Amino acid sequence: MRVGRDQLREELRDWVRGGARGRGGRLIVEGEPGAGRTAYVREALAEAAVLGCRVRYGAADPFTAELPLRAALDCLHPGGAGRAAVIALLREARRPEQGGGAWLAATDLLVSGVEEWCARGPTLLVLDDLHRADPASLLLWRRLGRSADRLPLLLAATRRPLPRRPEVEQLCADLGAGPGGRTVRLEPLTGPESAEALRRMLRAEPGPRLREAARQAGGNPGLLRELTAHWAGFIAITRDGPEPRRGEDTGGTRGDGCEDRPDEGPGGRPGRPVPPAPAAPPGDGPGNRRGDDREFSGFAELTVPEEELPHPPDSLPRGLGYLSRAAYTTLRHAALLGPAFTPRELALVQARSAREVLAELEEPLLAGVLEDTGEQLRFRQPALRRALYAELPRPARTALHQEAALALAEAGRDPARTAEQLLACGALDGWAVRWLADAARSLIAAAPAAAAELLERAVGQADRADREALEGSLADASLMLRRPESARLLATLHERATDPGARAALAFKLVSALMIEGDMARALAVTEDALAERVHSPALRLRLEACRVLALAERGCPAQAHVLAGPVVAEAARLGDPLCGAEAHHAMSFALFHLGRGRESLRHVAEGIAWARRDPEANDMRLLLLANQAEGHERFDEPQPVAAALREARELALATRSTGRLMVTEALEAEFHYRLGDWDAALAGAARADGPPVSDGWLPVVVHGLRALVHGHRDEREAARGELALLPSDAFAAPAARRYGGHVLLARSLLAERAGRPADAVRELLPALADGPDEARAYERPWMLSEIVRLALECGDTATARAAVAACGRTAAALAEYPGPALALLRCEGLFAQDPRLLGRALERAERGGRPLVLGHAWEDLAVARAWHGDLAAARSALTQAVAAYAVPGARWDIARADARLRSLGVRRGSRSARRRAANGWEALTPAELKVALLVAQGRSNPEIASALFLSARTVQTHVSHILAKLQVRSRAAVAAQAAARRPGPEAAPGAVPGPGP
Predict the structure, then answer these.
(1) Is the distance from CB of 860 to CB of 882 less than 8 angstroms?
(2) Residue 616: which of 442, 414, 413, 440 has the closest Cα?
(3) pLDDT of 269
(4) Burial of 229 (0-12, 13-18, 19+ CB in 10 A)
(5) Residues 214-231: tens digit of each pLDDT
(6) What is the average per-residue pLDDT within 729-744?
(7) Which of 163, 492, 501, 545 is most buried (CB neighbours < 10 A)?
(8) ω into residue 266 within 30 of 0, thus cis?
(9) Three-state DSSP state, 238
(10) pLDDT confidence band for 997 (50 / 70 / 90)
(11) Mean pLDDT of all residues in the chain?
């Protein structure tokens, strides 16, 4: 059994099968325009026709809603003698002398005809768009609904939430009530369901940027299909077989996500047109199951950033024609306030009462256009909001934004909301410049990106008296955002300043900007010059001294930095200032880190975080320390504290709108998911980290390197090469970029090896052999050295392999506290000697580390060594384990490489180990799904499972969906029951987690 839309489909088939066995029933299908109501009942029609039922389909037409019985007649008798007989009665009913007798006769004729059909066999009747039906057809449907409980009659109808007609509401309530009635609401697609819809439409796996852009549809299948067709020229599809091609035509759709209805019913029976299933309706349609992987090969991704996609189609707002004019106008004004707003804000902008505004928003809320998030109302479909916004002429938009900004500012609302309106206005009015000067500090804290853009405009418009203050605020905002221009702005302001206190404060900010850029030599020089001058503030002097410690440690003098850090920490404790305490412990932790004393460093990081939590002014330092804490625990293979630190950092960065720090957090989280084997989450995180330019020169290296490496391991070579091509020519200019460049070098090496050029693969990794200060602290250096050993030995280059073993030994000795370098050294030595004993020890460490890719390499290396020593059975067993580990993240290239290496040594996985995984049952579960299933059996919720396994909630949801499908059950309780049934006998320990059995 499947979840979400798949579960609804299965329940629909059960309903139809019950009808085919003679059990009548009533069904109401509700959903917004584009939800796929017609596609849903289409499956019932197709299933019923296959089972031998008589089927009839009709759709109410808004242009014929005044014609009595037209909707019912189109459904039951689209043509032929039956239709002619009813029409004759309807014509007779128009005569004044007939009264109501002819109407009653026409209705009785239709009902008796349905009863005759049911006497011959089960019948399914579907009336689409019930909300448009004429009153007489509604009365007929009510009569048929009363008959469904005693006849083999299945009666289905679909409807939208609006317009709300009392007679339709009552009919739907009656039909959906009782044992034989049911109501199905088609909810918006979830993230995984939207991704699956894209996969079916494009017949390729959607990339993270495309999946993120799909959120613009708000889970509406019809809108998703329309947007995908609209973006066709900006979607590149790389096929494994044929040549790459651009996005395909996905076909036109009706407003409800279905194609126009054709002219014949299924099964050759006469009937109103029954809509056939299109090739790949989004989120709907029989037979489109995840298992059809042979049909869906390749990778689909946007060729431009999401913000560069074309504007949504102008036709989108026309689908809101069911709204009243007042509701539509209010909705357009709401679109000016952005993706989310409060009724109070909208009331201020429209100069009306909140009660009036809420009354006009009731329709959009009922229709699902808006949703209540608790604190705000939000447009559920961002593409629709953008289309509504674009409907207003530009001059009108500008004027309305100016009025909105003034109204929000005068009401004392959140400065960030006022800033959003001013950003859309273009040039700033005089009052806006004055407001910005007064609100700059609070605006920078709340929305630094908006503050920076507005301050840039204001500096160009301000007079000389106000310009310097505005420039100072602009420098602060740029520093908060970690923008490259912050150092230049601060250097200019520092040179102009004459007041000693102002010079010292600007010097500290300039040093911070230079450190972010990685220019430690200049940062140290500015710090020394500032400390040589008189600094009146003890707190500011301490912060400058902390900067000197950081610069010295980074410049290769960690011992001297450690000596200076002691007095800084002591002075911070005496001052009791939270920001000083946080920066002092940060300086000490940094010196200890460079001395190789990781545990001590982490203790000072934790103390610094504790200091920073005491004062919001220390939030930026707290974000930095949380990032360092996550990286520190990552080096010790401790995922729980890593996840906790990243979670806190993300929440804080979002709350403070710190764009630069948020991008850094996203990059670190992507790295974390990569190491744990959740590569979809890693790609999604890397996409979120790929934002506007920041001073952190290493960030693009991490983002594109990580993406390239994932695509390379998955054997998506074009995508990997595309990511590497996005790196600028000077990507490795900054020392920090070289330190974080391991993923780029590994990706380049992987692509060279995949192309059959092992010598080139070695050359790509040779920078790791250098013993400079930047290279020695490179995060992936130990693993790169072990890869050099493997590849160099394949090329017969023993000298390079020996040099790599020696370099790895020096690195492991310098970083003796950390498990990673020690594992890499065992691998280097084991590979060089082809020693199964050393490689077995490396495997033991890899199993403790919990990193699927590293574990797969360890098993692969051991398999090769065992084969070299003639133990082919043990080699085959190790190869099977390697393939299982590689399968967890989907490392297709690594599986192919391992098979090829062992095949050359006479080892194959064989028919038993190479056979396809079972389609159903516990044996069908992948290792990752099995872990999730066991936690589901314990009663854990999806968020709890995500936290326990360090996965994204979206990934857990996908795993649970696959588990339910493979175990063929309907609920999580059924998973637990199956697991308990497979529990070992009475010898099992109390509380043991049930396993899948043999």
Answers:
(1) yes
(2) 442
(3) 33
(4) middle
(5) 999 999 999 999 999 999
(6) 79
(7) 545
(8) no
(9) strand
(10) very low
(11) 84
Task: For residue 152, report the phi and psi dihedrals to the nearest 5 degrees.
Answer: -75, 60
Q: Is residue 830 within a helix (H) or strand (E), and if so which, with residue range? A: helix 819-833
Instruction: Please return the burial class of 466, using the count of CB atoms within 10 Å of its CB with bins 0-12, 13-18 and 19+.
Output: middle
Query: Which residues are 54's β-sheet partners?
Result: 123
pTM, 2 dp? 0.62
pLDDT at 444: 84
In the chain, what are the helix, strand and coil shares in percent, each to the nearest 5?
A: 65, 5, 30
What are the residues facing 155 on neighbouring strands? 26, 125
Rounded CA-CA distance 491/600 in Å is 35
Q: Give 95-144 as a 3 state SS string.
A: CHHHCCHHHHHHHHHHHHHHHHHHHHCCEEEEEECHHHCCHHHHHHHHHH
Contact 885, 863 (CB under 8 A): no
Query: Which residue shows structure tokens 């106000």?
Result: 466
Closest CA to 745 of 787, 776, 804, 773: 787
Alpha-carbon distances of 662 from 25, 473, 651, 739, rounded to whole Å: 53, 21, 9, 21
- Cα(468)–Cα(222) distance, integer angstroms: 53
Dihedral in degrees, nearest 10, Cα atoms 71, 73, 76, 82: -170
Residues 160-197 have pLDDT tens digits of 998 889 999 999 999 999 888 999 999 999 888 898 88
β-pairing, 377-379 vs 340-341, is antiparallel
What φ, ψ does residue 153 adopt, rounded to 5°? -120, 125
Residue 245 has pLDDT above 50, yes or no: no
Question: Which of 250, 195, 254, 208 shows the shortest CA–CA distance to 225?
Answer: 250
Q: pLDDT tens for residues 257-313? A: 333 333 333 333 333 333 433 333 333 333 333 334 444 457 888 988 888 899 999
Residue type, 836: P
**377 or 502, greater pLDDT:** 377
- Number of Cβ within a 10 Å radius of residue 723: 24
Question: What's the angle, vertex CA 765, arms to CA 764 and CA 767, rounded to 5?
Answer: 105
Closest Cα to residue 487, out of 471, 472, 509?
509
Q: Are 365 and 377 in contact (CB under 8 A)?
A: yes
DSSP-derived 3-state class of residue 183: strand
- Give yes or no for residue 590 having a pLDDT over 50: yes
Contact status, residue 290 vs residue 304, Cβ threshold 8 Å:
no
The per-residue pLDDT for 278 is 35
What are the structure tokens assigned to 539, written together?
Answer: 């707190």
Kindly give, in sequence order, each residue whose CB lies less than 8 Å from that of residue 615, ignoring residues fewer than 6 positions away. Answer: 578, 579
Lowest mean pLDDT among 36-40, 90-94, 443-447: 90-94
Most distant CA pair in the chain, distance: 111
Which residues are within 8 A (CB) of 586 and not within 5 positions of it... i.e. 6 or more apart? 546, 550, 604, 605, 608, 621, 624, 625, 628
Write the pLDDT tens digit of every residue in 596-635: 899 999 999 999 999 999 998 899 899 999 999 999 999 9
Task: Return the half-sphere exposure (C-beta side, CA atoms, 13 A cut-off) of residue 317.
Answer: 17
639: how many CB neighbours lie within 10 A of its CB?
Answer: 18
Tokens coding 830: 């084991």
3-state secondary structure 29-83: EECCCCCCHHHHHHHHHHHHHHCCCEEEEEECCHHHCCCCCHHHHHHHCCCCHHH
Q: Is 781's pLDDT higher than 60?
A: yes
The helix or strand, by DSSP H or E, that contains position 956, with its residue range, turns out to be: helix 953-967
pLDDT tens, residue by residue, 901-919: 999 889 988 644 434 456 6
SS (H, E, C) 847-878: HHHCCHHHHHHHHHHHHHHHHHCCCHHHHHHH
